[in-house]
Amino acid sequence: MNFNRRQNRIAGPGFHINVRYDDQMMAKAHSTASMPHPHVNLGRNHKENFDVKEQELLVCKRGSSMYHDGYTHCISSANGFDGTGSLPKGGAGGPPSATPEEVAEYILSNVQFVGVATTEYKPSRAYSEQGFVAQVGGVTTLINEGESTIKPGDKVALGLNLKVGRKTSRDKGIPRDKIRFCLVKAGNSRANIAKALDETGQTGGASATSVRDAQKLLAEAEKKRGRYKGSDAAVITPLDSAVASAKTTLESLKICRKGVDGVIDFLDKYQELNERVIGKAASYARPGDRLEVILQPRNPY
Fold it and tell me: CA 281, CA 156: separation in Å to the nearest integer?
């Protein structure tokens, strides 16, 4: 096959670093002991799916300490991702199967963006990683393999599309069953806050008006209970029940109702969502089109 992978790529300044391939992540995906979720089980035994091609998004395992050689070890495939087997798979008597979005969220929360592959790399037993390079800054050309149209100025983030009806890779020479990380439009601060609260179980999605109404009902119930000075159980019991019910309602509507630990969990998740932002789009791209992206440092906030 004769084709040019660099077609229509912009020649812009860039910052590049030497990286290494994460052989352990690939080995765990291949392992017969690994039982990944069905959404990522496809193609995990096809070695070609774990080859790195130019302009693919590279990720490393979050918090990994398996290597001590001073290099970043990364991979570009999510096939057979280790740990997804712990997610619900459905079946009689159990919880329903995890959705593609839930599996993708699990994977994204366990990886960190490294950069864009500048060179190809084919993992082998021979030590041949000297020329494996990633671009971590500057201008690069990528393919929009997400589901939404990206416009100039949009912040773009690391994403993963595992939906059954997803389109396969638009790039040439890529196996059809390879699961690659893709670009998605980054959420704004309001969207990220809402998602972080939802992911950490901090809110029921209540509006400010609902919270104020619940506070008003609780105040009225406590006021009625405080006014009654008698000892008639027939009167006291309904009043106490009304106060308890109002407190329960208000508690269910509160944001970060898990206390200090809940606030810390929320901030960790919010920071993680912001760290997925990898740059800013410099051109217009519909799904399948190429676009220029200005890679930028991943600030925690």
Answer: 7
- Residue type for 34, please? S
Q: How far apart (Å, rounded) are the C-alpha atoms in residues 87 and 90?
A: 9
Single-letter amino acid code for the residue at 234: A
- Total domain count, the chain: 2
H/E stretch holding 117 reads strand 111-117
Residues 6+ apart with CB under 8 A from 129: 20, 21, 121
Look at the pTM and tell me if it is higher than 0.90.
Answer: no
Q: 143 lies in a domain?
A: yes
| Overall size of the chain counted in residues | 301
100-154 per-position pLDDT tens digit: 899 999 999 999 999 999 999 988 776 666 778 999 999 999 988 888 899 999 9
DSSP H helical segments within 31-131, as ranges?
Answer: 38-41, 100-108
Asked if 142 contacts 55 with a C-beta cutoff of 8 angstroms, the reply is yes
182 and 103, same structural domain? yes
Contact status, residue 61 vs residue 111, Cβ threshold 8 Å: yes
Same domain, 108 and 30: yes
Host domain of residue 229: 204-254
Phi-psi region of 51 (alpha: psi -120 to 50; beta: other; left: phi over 0): beta
Measure the CA–CA gap between 207 and 215, rounded to whole angstroms. Answer: 13
Nearest to 270 by CA among 254, 251, 256: 256
Q: How many CB atoms lie within 10 A of CB 43?
A: 19
At residue 141, what are phi and psi to the nearest 5 degrees? -110, 125
Contact 291, 281 (CB under 8 A): yes
18-31 pLDDT, tens digit per residue, is 999 998 899 999 88
